[in-house]
Amino acid sequence: MRPQIYIPSSDKKPLQPNEALAAVGLDNITGVSTTEGAGPDGARGMFYTWIDSANVGIGYDEPHQTWVKSVKSGDREPGAYWVGWKSNKPPTEQDLRRPDSRKGEWIQLGNDERWIVTTPNKLDRFPMLQEDGSLTWVVDEKFNWLTQELDRKRETSIVRQDDGDGSGERITIIFDDSADFDFFCRLLAINYRTTPELICHLKLFNQDTLRSLGVSLLGLNLIQDDA
After folding, report:
1. Predicted TM-score (pTM) above 0.90
2. What one-character DSSP code corresponds to residue 3?
3. Residues 6+ apart with CB under 8 A from 106
């Protein structure tokens, strides 16, 4: 069942749905229907969801729904939005998939479904002429963050050390689970209308999955030392 987003009302000028969602960091959620009503915080606000024939309801129905309050993120305080779904029908991969999803690798995540994870090599590239007349191929600029973040991870996360016996070098990966979780939430949002809170409650990522995916995107294989 597709989820809903609830945003409490404010004294500010009413925004269009895409503007209201972008204002709370959910610019990946588009093409929504809206209604106004009482929310899970006991106040009133706007509900946003994308409705189909199997998901016709919109609004707060406390006995039959699960609602999760957003966490603090940058300057946004907790509760900037809430995400909710029917308790006995949590959202599936198909419920959350964007109609304009990109090509990617099908990866099995924590709810035992396979999800499309876009990787740089799967992004479409477009021609760009250089000043000297030569042609190069570049990804859509809205995905620059993906290639730049992976370049940064290669510089800061990979430590190469000579084994000292002439047999080669040892590669150590430095993990930052919090930063990696944020990165993969953004990566999944390329193809899915979701939030970090929903990802957590669906248990899509565990620590091993995050680390294996991260190392794979860096072009390496994860080998763990025996404890």
Report:
1. no
2. -
3. 114, 115, 116, 117
